[in-house]
Every structure is written in structure tokens, then in C-alpha cells.
Amino acid sequence: MIINHPNFGDIAADRVIIFDTTLRDGEQSPGFSMNLAEKLRMAEALAELGVDVIEAGFPIASPGDFESVQSIARKLKNGPVIAGLARTSRNDILSAAEAVKDAERKRIHVFLSTSPLHMKYKLRMEPDEVLQLAIDSVTLARQYTDDVEWSAEDGSRTEPDFLCRCVEAAIKAGATTINIPDTVGYALPADMTRIFTMLRERVPGAEKIIFSTHNHNDLGLAVANTLAAVAAGARQIECTINGIGERAGNAALEEVAMAIRTRPDAVPCQSGIVTERIMMTSKLLSTITGFDVQPNKAIVGRNAFAHESGIHQDGVLKNAATYEIMTPESVGLTKNSLVMGKHSGRAAFRDKLRALGYGELGDNQINDAFRRFKDLADRKKVVYDEDISALVDDEIVRDNDRIRFVALDVHAGSRGPAKAVLELEIDGQAHSAEASGDGPVDATFSAIHKIFPHEARLVLFSIGAVTEGTDAQARTTVRLEEAGKMVDGQGADTDTIVAATRAYLHALNKLLVKRERTEPEALSA
Q: Cα–Cα 20 to 30 A to 32, which of 25, 200, 312, 472?
């Protein structure tokens, strides 16, 4: 059966719409705040990945959120639908409408709790009041766009009869997509099958709209529940890169996309995802947020295509299909390639950046990245693709940071306290300080605190290597906590202390963004 949609036209029965909420639900995760430049870069990467809808944010949440959604709506042309989230209040809907109004294709996404638990304790409303609010909010949103999505928050724990009534009312009011979220990750795949089958069979007008599934991973079942919903007729999948999101996260886009590609016999559907860009997009998000995926993460973990068992290695050498159900190349994974060195020129460097997915960088960004590359090549015997990606991300993703690293001198050893002399640039002004401490890292972090006093507490400090060898770049992660808000920062450099400094400054800059964000009441979905 073909469904006609205002933003997609005629949609074939086997076409699955990929709705990415990395910039909204994903950013709600503790520590995952992004500034405007980072959100724009991530949105461009999602468009290149082939997602159909980008939920760009929650405009009413803060002026920064509004600006982000508006900027993405204005910048991304000939690409995905741009959606803004809204509660059922008039101000929320008007804010979302204003934020997305300049998008070539736009959507307002309205959500409302429907479970007995949420209605009683969160909304403090009777079912009939909730039903009327669903009608009124969708009706208002339809005044600003033909594409309105309505979500039944905590839908998986909603009473079946009431869920049917709400969905029917939302469709009659003009909703073009109906989303049934498993908001707290409570459902099992059988629940998804039951819910979507029931809605398609019982709700008048169900054949004219798109059903959407949005699953959280509290029981580790988000992807399984998503695929069960698709099998039961859902044709929009709400997901995030690397599975980030509230608590245990959301269904991971990369896992869903590769399940569809790898098992067409069991999931006879198609998506528009360019799977060869999955690894690149995953790494970009990790760099921006400061959160690496775990080594055994499906699809994008560093061990996803690694084989240590002798039996497995023997099988892979004879025929990769013996132990690999997909190729590394199908998700954009390539082997180390030694093609760049200290004698490489700017043109070759620019070509390498394009090959690594950095095709839209400006001249100033290219120059800054090339300067760091030449410095790295002078200090490092072997320059791998991973080295280039690490330094480019470290330099360019932080392009609009308020606090920027300039220089560091450290004296350390087994005799006496370590000393650090640090130079930073804050809002364009040069600052410096000298400090001592119990080791070079402690001394350097004390110098940062002297230059930029703050109340943030260091709760995690870890170091890893980008590649192999004693001259490998260190990739350092720093986690800061302030007033219950947590952020992670990352930095890379062949000097471990410099890498640590960059990571701390990255976290501080993210904390400044976090300070400006105020969570609206009862934000979820």
C-alpha cells in the first residue's frame, strides 16, 4: 500500500523513514551538550548520511536551542525534513513553528503523556482532558505546517482503548505521523507487535498516516523493539547515532540500518541511509560530545570487525563470510593507510581530508588543520588516517570555543612538585598563569583554574592512544561536574599533557553551553 505524505509524496510500503533525534533526545543525555557550530556540523553529517528527518532540537528549551533549530532549518537545503519538538502548550508550538519556518521541508512534533501513571502524577489531568489537549495541539500545529507528528508519551504503558482513542483523535485533527514511544524502555518485542497491529486494525484512518516507533534501551531491547514495530507496520524509525539518549539511550541508527541491509529476508524494507558513512558519522559525534563508544559496540565499536580467536582468524582468512555477516567497508571502515608525511603538500592534505569526509571545510579551517598536521608530521614517524582525523576534529570541532589553548610549558620529574606555565585565549583575549601540583596534569589543571576560575569538579580522567607506537597521539577524556550537570571533553596530541589540557578546555567550553540551557518542565518522549 502506498501512503501519500505532505513532505515525502507517495511512500512505498517497503520504505522506512529514518527520523534522527541525536540533536534532541541524544543531547538530553548527561554531558552531551553541543554548541551551535557543533550542531550545524552534526546536522550536515546526518544529511550526508541520508536520514529523512532531523529532529533539530526543542526550541522552547532555551534561546540557544531555538537558534540551533532555526540555523539548521535555514542552512540545510534540499535535504532532510527539519523537525522541532513541542509540548502541547501554545507557546511551545509557536516557538517550534517559528524555529522551523525557513526550512524547505518542516515538521512540528507535538508530544503528550497518555499512560495512567503519567496522567495522574505528571499531568494531573483526567483522560478526557488529555484527549482534548491532543486535539487542540495538533489543530494549532497544523496552522503552521502540513506535516505534524503527534507522540503518545509512555505509549507502551498506555491502556489500549485510550491509546486508540487518542490516536484516532490526533489523526482527525490533522496529524500525518503518529509516534508510539517506549519512553522508559519497558516494552518487549511482543508488546510492539501487539500495539502497532492493534492500532492499524482498530483506528479509523490508520491507513492514511505513518506510524512511528521510538524506543529507549533501558532493558537493552531498543533495536529489537524497533524491528518488531517495523514488522508490525511502523514505517518511521526514531533513532540516534551511537544510540545516545536519555538514561541507557535510544535505538542506535547504525544498528537498525545495518539490520535492514543485512537481513532483507527478515526485514523486507529499504532506507535511504548511506551505510558507508556510518563510521565517519559515529566518530564525528564521539569527537563532538567527548564520549567514545564501547569497544564491543555493534557496528561502530573498534572490536566490531576484530578477530582474536585462532579458529575465527583461520575462518576469516579462508572466507570472511565465515565470521563476518557484513563487510567493514559497508559501514565505511578502512584500514590504516600511510600516505601522508612531513613532505606532503597542502593540495595532498586537502585531498586526504576530502577522502576522510571533511569536504566542506573553509580555507581558514584548512590552514589551521594543515598547520597542526605539519607540526604532527615533524614529531611523529608515521602519520595514519586516524591521526589526521584526530587532529582535524580536535582543531575544527572546537572552532567557536570561547576558551582556546595557546601554549604550555611543563617541568616535572621525581624531585619536587611539577610546574606548569599555561597560555590561553578567552573570548579573544590572551591570559597566562603559572601553577604547581602533584604531577604535570595536576599542575596544568591548577593553571587552568587560575586563568578561568570555576566550581566544576573533575570526576574522570582517562588516556588512550589513537594509533600504535610510542609516538602515538594521546586521546584524553576529561569529565567535569557542576551543579549536577556533567560534561565530557576530549583532546588529542602527541604530548599527553597537551592532550589533557585540550580535553579539559573542551569540557569547560561544553559546560558554558550547558549553563545556558534550562530544561522545560516534563520534557521527555
A: 472
